Amino acid sequence: MKTLKFKIPKLLAAFAMLACLSSTSDPSYKVIEAFPKLKFKEPVDLTHSNDGSNRLFVLEQEGTIRVFENNNSATTSQLFLDIKKKVSYGGEAGLLGLAFHPDYKKNGYFFVNYTSKVSGKLETIIARYKVSQNNANQADPASETVLFTYEQPYDNHNGGAVKFGKDGFLYISAGDGGSWGDPHNNGQNKSALLGKILRVDVNSTEKGNYGIPKDNPFAGNREGFREEIYALGMRNPWRISFDNETNTLWAGDVGQNKREEIDIIVKGGNYGWRKKESIDCYKPNKDCEETGFIDPILDLPQSNGEHSVTGGFVYRGKALPELTGKYVFSDYVSGRVFALETKNGKAVKNSVLAEKVYQVSAFGEDADRELYLCSHSSGKILKLAK
After folding, report:
1. Which domain holds residue 265?
2. Are 211 and 200 in contact (CB under 8 A)?
3. Residue 12 banded pLDDT, cuts 50, 70, 90
4. What is the mean pLDDT of residues 171-177?
5. CATH for 238
6. pLDDT more than 70, % of the chain
7. 296, 253 in Cβ contact below 8 A?
8. Partners of residue 174 on adjacent β-strands
9. Could you tell me what percentage of the chain is helix, strand and coil, using 3-state DSSP and rounding each to the nearest 5?
10. Is 188 helix (H, G, I), strand (E, B) or coil?
């Protein structure tokens, strides 16, 4: 049987150009509370429903979604969805991702990524819910439709993000399944969903409650490769995002014990794990180069203090015009917030915008593309200011 092959776009050559940059500091930024009167329990995501309602939605890891008016004087949030009884929560497990359907205003659909224990085994659940017909601030908890599931062999490295691209497809970040060093080699196993970026068509019923985009790298293959795979070789791409202007897909992939990385994800791309940890060989510990591996656009040595990168967004708001087009991200452990400047697909400058902003679990955007930071430990929603 012939080995399936696909071509990586020529654009990849530019994206693969690695920037080993030392970070510069810009002390003119501060981090303030965006909604001083609100507090959440272990927030792990923030987004909006793109329906003109000026609302924000915050995911609480334990299994709830809360909604509130996007106003800095907001005093209360409402419970939008409670699925705590379904969610296996703790450590890196829980309710981890939320994405509203591009036609949410018409169909009321939204999608979540959560972990659950079924017969004692931990699984990731990708599911669709629908808003209540009678209350725009409340979802129908009985409306769950499961698209698909996949087993998690350990309780860490679950990934968890879900985002819609401009193509209308749903992108899902899946970690390698956990433990240490990807013991099952999921990152390079094309027959496994773990250690991948996945892409599915939520408007199709080809596979029950979803379908496979026809241009997915392994669509229609006969070798047992998973057709949902969009890119592979990931360790724990905890947060992913699209640049609203260019539709470039960015990922912050958490490293093992030497390096963190920021990746630009392209269709069919292989980002090396577990053979490589960012730019280093991992297993084997030398001679690991293979044609087609894509180095990160930014390598972050853990020796500099970064130990758990939190992917962010390319800034497209208006409040901080000097950040326009820069990728803003952070590190959960070091507490630094960065802005990565790129040119022609190459990193040219990485600036530290703020220090000691510890345990930033996620970034989010509102309808105006203004940026927010979720503080996992304090429960506060933060923002950058001059």
Report:
1. 33-316+361-385
2. yes
3. very low
4. 98
5. 2.120.10.30
6. 94
7. yes
8. 196
9. 5, 40, 55
10. helix
Inter-residue contact 301 to 319 (CB < 8 Å): no
Cα dist. 313→85, 154, 157 in Å? 32, 29, 21
Q: What is the pLDDT of residue 129?
A: 98
**168's tokens:** 């209308």
CA-to-CA separations, 207 to 170, 211, 227, 302, in angstroms, rounded = 15, 5, 11, 42
Identify whether 89 is part of a domain.
yes
Q: 173: Cβ–Cβ under 8 A, 6 or more apart, which residues?
A: 97, 159, 160, 161, 162, 197, 198, 234, 237, 238, 239, 240, 251
Amino acid letter for position 281: C
Residue pLDDT, tens place only, 227-260: 999 999 999 999 999 999 999 999 999 999 999 9
Burial zone of 369 (CB within 10 Å; 0-12 exposed, 13-18 middle, 19+ buried): middle
> Does residue 339 belong to any structural domain of this protein?
no
Confidence of residue 14 (pLDDT cuts 50, 70, 90): very low
- pLDDT in the model for residue 315: 98
Average pLDDT over residues 62-80: 98
Asked if the structure places residue 119 within a domain, the reply is yes
What is the three-class DSSP state of 120?
Answer: coil
13 is a domain residue: no
Beta strands in 210-345 (DSSP E): 229-232, 237-242, 249-253, 259-265, 276-277, 280-281, 298-301, 309-314, 327-331, 337-343
3-state secondary structure of 293: strand
Q: What is the value of pTM for the model shown?
A: 0.94
Geometric angle at alpha carbon 329, from 332 and 198, rounded to 5°: 90
